[in-house]
Amino acid sequence: MRINFKGFIDTTLRDGQSSPLLYDTYKYRFSLAEKKQIVNALLKLGVRFFEFYSPVVSEEERKSFLILKKYIKSLTPEKTYLLAHCRCHPLDIQTALGLGFDGLNLYMGLSEEAQENYGKSLRQLSDLIGEIVISTRQKNPLLWLRYSGEDAFRTSLKNLFLVYDRIAQYVDAFGFPDTTGTATPEKVGQRVRAFKKRYPKVNLECHFHNDRGLSLINTMAAVKNGAEFIDSSIWGMAERSGITSVTGALLNFYEIDKSLVKNFNLQFAYPLNVLMASILGWQVPWTEPVSLTNRTHIAGVHQKAVLGHKGYEAHQLEKFGITSQQLLLGPLSGWNFIYYFLKEMENYIITPEEAKIITADFKKQTKKLGKKIKPEEILNQLAKSHSLTRTSIPKKFADKRKENLGI
User: Fold this and answer.
1) Cα separation of 306 and 325, whole Å?
2) 272 domain-assigned
3) Phi, psi angle pair for 135, to nearest 5°
């Protein structure tokens, strides 16, 4: 199957505001100023599709969208698409169109459970959806229009095809959401291929929840099998365990085929993650591929390998805005890093043999480590007790000094 990835539908300002992280951090919702920061950073990254709540959700969301619409259009001359996430309901649709959205992301479930919840048969749902989609398209020929069968991976293809066949010529995209996070890469590949075979001229947009920890690998499977669009957010923030991280997906696309990310400014990936960290007052999650954590080394064998050969780090994270790495002192540090730390960072005159002795003493004292006692303090005390002397190096030279320690 030919890869034809066209971009991300960013849903940070919609599904992202449903993330438990906003409650864990007592944020609850993004302020207007924070929303401006978020969309500005996403635009710099190269995102052009933005999904918002239906304006009927709240007056606050309606007002902020009107301001953000003008703000986004003022930031870039390139075409952007501001999309409203709407029920297949006239109130949602009419309100969104009245506010000037560029498109509608319509949804309605088709599973057995959905039919029971709506109190309608599949045929009745098909008639309702068909009437709404066709009428909306006829009245708005230039509108970006997507329809999604909610919880698509727990809905039979027979049910989905019954409705999708009816409206295929009227939509720009079909959504294929893994609403409850049950999909596997194998099932994703099978279903995406089936959809692209049946609807080769209609864009396919996939939305993967991370309940099983599979959102990112499901994203890779979808794109490899022909999906054009992926729903994503900063850090993968969304309901429950979240969805696909936009920067995590970019890193993996880069590994698959660099041409997939040619329209993105990768150097803004890590700054985007740091921005969200500053908004929430958290660190970038350790599970986020594009993070300084992914360049942090603690075990002695890892620290030695990184000190001896930069190629030990396999991913070119500097292309994604991560320009430094961390080697952290602690109980697992070996003599190689302690030698490096005392010689290069603290400017002690020290031999490898002395470093080995100090390392043994250091490990005996690591039980003291905590919030009040840092490993650097213990090492400096040990250096003094072993009568090591420091060299005096002017800062302008010390900052530039790089030494091959031969370890």
Assistant:
1) 10
2) no
3) -65, -45
